Amino acid sequence: MRVTISRKAHFNAAHRLYRKDWTAEKNDAVFGKCNNPNFHGHNYELTVSVTGEVDPETGFVIDVKILADIIYQEVELPFDHKNLNLDVPEFQDLNPTAEHIAVVIWNKIRKKINPDFDLEIVLYETARNFVTYKGE
């Protein structure tokens, strides 16, 4: 009996989309207002879903408290009220697009959960723009 359990989370972060190896004109052409040199921010909404066999003793796929603690430690603490470009080591040389942020979050959480479980990340950058990542 495979079941999916999901947990929502929220964080606020600033970022700038640009490539250091491109000219200012090319960055403006590709990233537009998201290339603002003074950065801009989002109220990110995150849904983390874990799919696996239900433990017959507990009735859980994963204890939601454990999942909440993982999300807090791996995402909320390092990302909330941070400048992703400047404060988060994973984005030192990685453009913090929504796609990249979702993959980074997936990789951080993947290390903390049972490898037999499937993991899906849905990251909302705005109410209408979101990314889903399920791993490679």
Automatic annotation (TrEMBL):
This enzyme's EC code(s): 4.-.-.-
Binding-site list for Zn(2+): 15, 40, 42
An annotated GO BP: tRNA queuosine(34) biosynthetic process
InterPro entries: 6-PTP_synth/QueD (IPR007115), 6-PTP_synth/QueD_sf (IPR038418)
A Pfam family matched in the record: PTPS
Pathway: Purine metabolism; 7-cyano-7-deazaguanine biosynthesis
Cofactors (names): Zn(2+)
Active site: 34 (proton acceptor), 81 (charge relay system), 125 (charge relay system)
Keywords carried by this UniProt record: Lyase, Metal-binding, Queuosine biosynthesis, Zinc
Any GO MF annotation of the entry: 6-carboxytetrahydropterin synthase activity
Co-factor binding details: Binds 1 zinc ion per subunit.
Protein name (Swiss-Prot/TrEMBL): 6-carboxy-5,6,7,8-tetrahydropterin synthase
Top-tier EC class: lyase
Catalytic activity entry: 7,8-dihydroneopterin 3'-triphosphate + H2O = 6-carboxy-5,6,7,8-tetrahydropterin + triphosphate + acetaldehyde + 2 H(+)
Similarity comment: Belongs to the PTPS family. QueD subfamily.
Keyword Transcription regulation in record: no
